[in-house]
Amino acid sequence: MANAIAAGASDLAMVDIMKIGGVTGWMAAMAQAEAAALPLSNHTFVESSAHVMAVSPTASWFEYLDIVGAFLTEPLLPVNGMVSARGPGLGLGLDWDEHAVARYAFS
């Protein structure tokens, strides 16, 4: 993140929460984006990204790509073009649909 900012590589930082090191890595990237006045966007993992984008000072564009919705009891769906973080703690408000998980399981 620091190298990309220093190189002026982009007008928008699109951060992948899994690749940047989870919430801790996001917070570090978020601080760097804020210091550089760089708009911040997420890349995939909408359920966890909704939480971190909500606290990002330079949050700009939210990428919505539903990857795990079919496996959740209540998928995170946009309402009027927006998503909202839900649920406390490490579970990020996720409740797995065990029947769906079993249905798509392979061995």
Beta content: 5-15%
Name the helix and strand elements from N-terminus to C-terminus, one letter apiece. Answer: HEHHEHH
Q: Sum up the overall morphology in one term.
A: elongated
CA gyration radius, whole angstroms: 15 Å
Total number of β-strand segments? Answer: 2
Mean pLDDT: 91
Q: How can the largest sheet be summarized?
A: 2 strands, parallel
- Alpha-carbon distance between the termini? 38 Å
Approximate helicity band: 25-40%
Unreliable runs, pLDDT <50, ≥5 residues? none
Structural class: mainly alpha
SS field, number of helical segments: 5
Q: What's the arrangement of strands in the largest beta sheet?
A: 1-2
Could you characterize the architecture of this molecule?
The protein is mainly alpha-helical and 107 residues long. The chain contains 5 helices and 2 strands; from the N terminus they run H-E-H-H-E-H-H. The radius of gyration is 15 Å and the shape is elongated. The model has no long low-confidence stretch (mean pLDDT 91).
